[in-house]
Specification:
Blueprint lengths: L6 H79 L20 E2 L17 E4 L5 E3 L4 E7 L11 E7 L4 E10 L6 E2 L4 E5 L9 E7 L7 E2 L1 H7 L5
Antiparallel strand pairs: 1-2, 2-9, 3-8, 4-5, 4-7, 5-6, 6-8, 6-9, 9-10
Length: about 230
Amino acid sequence: MSKRMNPAARVTVVALAAAGLGATMVTGAGSAFAAEGKAAAAPVAVTASAAVAKQADVQAHAAAQVKAAAAKAAAAKTAAAKKAVTVKPVAAKKAAAWVKPVAGYTLSASYNQGGAMWAHKHSGQDFAVPVGTPVKVAGSGTVVKAGPNGGGDGPAYGNAIVVKHANGTYSQYAHLSKIKVHIGQKVLVGQQIALSGNTGNSSGPHLHFEIRTTPNYGSAVNPAAFLRSHGVSI
């Protein structure tokens, strides 16, 4: 014989069952909501992280550009400074190969001039200067004659010097008051070799200057023309 449930108890059971089902539904619904919220939050977090990373990349790129620009500006400044202080080398003036034997002179007797003063025509160019005027060698060379009696060319020249030059010519300086070089000495163009005077066959203080093809008397050529051909005007 089946037992019938008390109506009051049935109501209670139904109520409890409903309550349990409701709790289960509520719990399920809450879990579902939490899961949905978590799923929704994840994309937001990922998006924010990507934005921060992108911003960092942008800032790093901008910083690199600023650094590169600063380095370029510094290099340009350094180059400009170097250019400002760089001194352009001045081309050295080419040294003269030949010069005048004296300064502050007056030309007197010239080459090939005739007169009672010479047994033959004049063999050189005379430069009238006071006694003691510095006499310079007209071109670099080696002293081959130096002394009284024309250095061996005769008493008419007084104290004299003869210098041999690299081009095969010789220069002579006569009527000197003082000789400052010796035979065999190397001399450089423009170097002082003597003081002018009035020794030998001389009508007054002057330097007698010759250009010769040999070291000896009788081989003279026009000294003024020779000097002009080497860029020296007297």
